[in-house]
Amino acid sequence: MPFEKAAQKSSQVRVLLRPMLPPFYSYTFKFTATRSIFVLTAGSVDVTVTFLSPVEATDLVKQSTPFAYMAVSAASNDNAAHSVQVYSDITAEWVSANLSDTVEWSTSAVGNVITHQFQSQLPSVFSEYQDHVQYGSVFYSMQNTPNTTYQTGGDAVVRTQFVNHGQLTNSQETNFRAINASWPVLGLAHDLGSVIGPTSPVVFSVGYIRDPAIQYVVGKGTNWQNRSLYFWSQFSTVSALISSFLGDYNAALSRAQSLDSKVNSDGSKISADYAAIVELSIRQAVGATEITISRNPDGTWNTDDVIVFLKEISGENANTVDVIFPAWPCLVYLNPALGKYLLEGLFRYQANGLYPHLWSVHDLGSGYPRALGHNDGNDGNMFVEESGNMLITALSYAQKTGDNSQLAQYTTLLDQWAQYLIKHSLLPEYQSSTDNFAGALANQTNLAVKGIIGIKAMSQIYSILGNTAQSSNYSSIAADYVTQWQTLAMSSTGPHLTLSYVSWGLTYNLYADKLLKLDLFPASIYDLQTAWYETVAQHFGVPLDSRHTYTKTDWQIWTAAIVTNTTIRDMFISSVKNYAADGLSSQPFGDWYETTNGQPEGFRARPVVGGHLALVS
């Protein structure tokens, strides 16, 4: 969304949501779990702009609706009346990251709603470019009232029209062209009239729809299934969806305020810094998910067949297991069923025998939104990592909900992964962990922790399913491995655990021991690490391991959730908060950064920030 600016011209105030007019005089800003709220002061008028991205995790229709709101209201701050008009537009940058792509547009009025639409003239279905999908349409809408005007055309033409006249011409230019050729925009304007007290909000909606949304592997060769977003089960047209969405604004705002209040309350029980981190993380985590359904043979929607897909932002993969794993606390907090539906696509693919290895697949495909699997077995080199992740998250869902259906259906697959972990966890071969950017290693201490917890998770799974013999067997193996692991992992050079049985690192995988309430590792291990972290902390946190001085936000918060000293816990939390607030990056919340100076290392907008909810899940 273009950044907000306001300007005063004589006695009129016109809000232009684009950096074209002189800057507003002052502003305040706050964010919640669902909203970003700007209060802009331009002369004698205060303008409140609220961006609302609904988080409706327990309503699959609403959560699958890829739309957001922008609401604008105004009030006089000198008790005198002022004439106020509001303008906003979007460019075709919403359609493609390739600015030379040719786009087309249209405007329609259906019922009491006016809608602009952009799309590429040559869409590339199921493809993306620079984390931007290359097919589908963006829709920009508002209620069509007598005070509403619209216009499409070059940015300078449309914006100048509004600046000079306070309204648009209700006209459409149809010279379709490249995104960056005189920058075509879709403009909407509304005259608030003479304003003294706070006005009712003028509500805009923006959304991006593509259908089908996902191509999912269901067999060998080119046996693929097209899947659509869940909302189609309730709406047959885009116009009906938009009308419903705009009409639901007040109710959506009320629901958002309730969630915001809960999130802030839960986070503040830890600290104000922690509440801020959680509030900043939720939209980013949930925004990477898409809730899909398939069609029945007769063409009707099959709402019993739900699979959630997750885009690895800053990467091309679909349903990356070691991205789901750090995001898991957010899913558990909002609606554990979303986690089940995320795992379902992975379970189903591997249960069909399409993946050739004994360990868990790394992801469902390397070209989102194509989830075509890895039938050739050529995926990420994370054997212990992903097998442990699948066992831990599957058990976590069952524990949170009492729904054991997935455990029962995929027991054979879960046991296969557990057997692999028995053979390969205590002394992991040379391989990558989720932190593959740091390089592969053999005998990774933290990776062994995950594998051992995965074995214990299988014990708990068998206990839930009533197989006491197998439960006892896996439990004994896990306990024995913990004893051996302590000998292997204890450093000879200092009071800490090692990175690869020879150095040190964050042992954040111990969080899974707490999440699953296994009590597998002794309290002395947690005490040991808690004391050590303080000795190696930098200004912006504790490095990921002894090889580098960079770290990750999600793993620091996971570590904060398991340390045994609240001072050290708050040290981790404050480090992440200070990094996020330091302003050294213009990118959405990045999770990988340098502990010495707070500079981002890479990654942006990734759903792994869902892991920041580790202390409230």
Compact overview of the structure:
With 617 residues, the chain is α+β, with helices and mostly antiparallel strands.
How do the helices and strands line up, and which of them pair or pack?
Blueprint: E1 6-9, E2 12-16, E3 26-31, E4 35-42, E5 45-52, H1 60-63, E6 67-76, E7 82-91, E8 102-110, E9 113-120, E10 128-129, E11 132-133, E12 137-143, E13 148-154, H2 155-165, E14 171-172, E15 177-178, E16 184-195, E17 202-209, E18 214-217, E19 224-229, H3 238-247, H4 249-268, H5 272-286, E20 289-295, E21 301-310, H6 321-334, H7 336-351, E22 370-371, H8 383-401, H9 405-409, H10 411-424, H11 445-464, H12 468-489, H13 511-515, H14 523-536, E23 550-552, H15 553-562, H16 566-581, E24 592-594, E25 600-602
Parallel strand pairs: 2-7, 13-14, 18-22
Antiparallel strand pairs: 1-2, 3-4, 4-5, 5-6, 6-17, 7-16, 8-9, 8-15, 9-12, 10-11, 12-17, 13-16, 18-19, 19-20, 20-21, 23-24, 24-25
Helix pairs in contact: 4-5, 5-16, 6-7, 6-8, 7-8, 8-10, 8-11, 10-11, 11-12, 15-16
Q: Can you characterise this structure?
A:
With 617 residues, this protein is of the alpha+beta class. The protein folds into 2 domains: 14-209, Glycoside hydrolase, family 65, N-terminal domain (Beta-galactosidase, Chain A, domain 5); 229-247 and 273-613, Glycosyltransferase, CATH 1.50.10.10. The protein is 35% helix and 24% strand. It is built from 16 helices and 25 strands. The strands form 5 sheets. It has a 9-stranded antiparallel beta sheet. A 6-stranded mixed beta sheet has the order 1-2-7-16-13-14. A hairpin with a 6-residue loop joins strand 18 and strand 19 (224-229). Helix 4 (249-268) packs across helix 5, helix 6 (321-334) runs antiparallel to helix 7 (336-351) and helix 7 (336-351) crosses helix 8 (383-401). The radius of gyration is 26 Å and the shape is globular. The two termini are 31 Å apart.
